[in-house]
Specification:
323 residues; alpha/beta; 2 domains; eight-stranded mixed sheet; 31% helix; binds adenosine-5'-diphosphate; binds iron/sulfur cluster; binds magnesium ion
Length: 323
């Protein structure tokens, strides 16, 4: 499998009124071609800012360092003009709330038409034809009616399909979906996830699926990265992660959901997510970890290979030393 996107030692700080927030603490991850990679973790752990870093869409109080390699180029060093050829085109994104990306004052045809016309350099009629085709591709019945509608006249699920259609209009090689179904009813959630999988199968793009929901990961992803307080603490194939979670945090997360595949008794999580203004030294999870050792508050554990397709960042796992 070829690597499509590689994030290497990504650090992100925010300067805030209250001090500096050390939000990403050396994130490393790889997304392969034609895979669905799930990034999972509790609210505030840094999933969205990771995706915004990829597209360099962070606010001005952000300080970013590290590398994000896409098609042989470091996106963090690319001039803005070059990045514009990638952002929204080779790498597109859909957000949790499609209403925030749609303008309530304009019909869908105006919003889709304008973007398609501008970026594909085609006339209005052609752009509308393309918009209709895209709406069909995301299984929206009666695309003509949809194009004539204002966003508020459509359901949340329909709006999310429109956002996916727009994201796909430039045939991206990576689709970032940031909690794409969190705002939707459970039945609609499943339909949207199925749609993403169906489109991925057809067009062979990779998906970075961001979610706080392990159920979504289990249903949708090939591989998964678990994030805690700005670190990736474990990466594995989905089945492997559910069957053999190694990191105490992953085990805690899994204990919160009933899953018949997980056989070992689990310890639920205690305590709270730390403040990123003063993150705990060493392993950021140590104040909540029942297995913490002396070294854990002193030295940050590196993400190391435990077995094929399974890496973990925890001092318990030194080479050949299973807990
Ligand atoms: N513009 C900002 N200024 C300061 N802190 C921010 C800003 N944006 C996000 N953060 C902080 O970064 C952390 C990660 O946020 P986020 O990536 O949105 O989390 P997630 O998507 O995992 O819920 C949070 O602690 C959040 O408060
Ligand atoms: S490194 Fe230490 S504190 Fe962190 S998860 Fe592993 S055992 Fe727990
Ligand atoms: Mg988020």
């Amino acid at each position: 499998m070829n690597v499509l996107l590689s994030i290497e030692d990504l650090h992100l700080k925010f300067r805030t009124f209250w001090g500096t927030a050390y939000v990403l603490d050396g994130v490393n991850l790889k997304i392969y071609e034609d895979e669905v990679f799930g990034l999972v973790g509790e609210t505030g752990c840094g999933k969205s800012v990771t995706s915004m870093s990829i597209l360099r869409l962070l606010p001005s109080n952000a300080e970013l360092s590290g590398k994000i390699i896409f098609e042989g180029q470091n996106l963090l060093e690319l001039p803005e003009k070059e990045l514009r050829k990638i952002r929204g085109k080779k790498i597109s994104i859909v957000f949790q709330d499609p209403m925030s990306s749609l303008n309530p004052l304009f019909k869908i045809k105006t919003q889709m038409g304008d973007i398609i016309k501008l970026h594909h350099n085609i006339d209005k009629d052609e752009a509308l034809k393309k918009a209709e085709k895209l709406l069909r591709a995301v299984n929206l019945p009666d695309p003509h009616r949809v194009l004539e509608s204002y966003p508020h006249q459509l359901s949340g699920g329909m709006r999310q399909r429109i956002m996916i259609a727009m994201a796909l209009s430039f045939e991206p090689s990576l689709l970032i979906a940031d909690e794409p179904t969190t705002a939707l009813d459970v039945t609609i959630q499943k339909q949207i996830l199925d749609l993403i999988l169906e489109l991925k199968k057809k067009y062979h793009f990779s998906v970075l699926l961001i979610t706080h929901d392990l159920g979504v990961v289990a249903e949708t992803c090939d591989r998964v990265g678990v994030m805690y307080a700005g670190n990736i603490v474990e990466v594995a194939d989905v089945d492997e992660l559910f069957e053999n979670p190694l990191h105490p945090y992953t085990q805690g997360l899994l204990s919160a959901i009933p899953d018949p595949r997980y056989k070992k008794p689990l310890k639920p999580l205690r305590g709270n997510v730390p403040s990123l203004l003063e993150p705990p030294p060493g392993c950021r999870f140590h104040p909540r970890c029942d297995f913490a050792m002396k070294i854990c508050s002193k030295k940050k554990p590196k993400l190391v290979e435990y077995s094929e397709n399974h890496t973990v960042a925890c001092h318990i796992y030194r080479r050949g030393n299973e807990k």
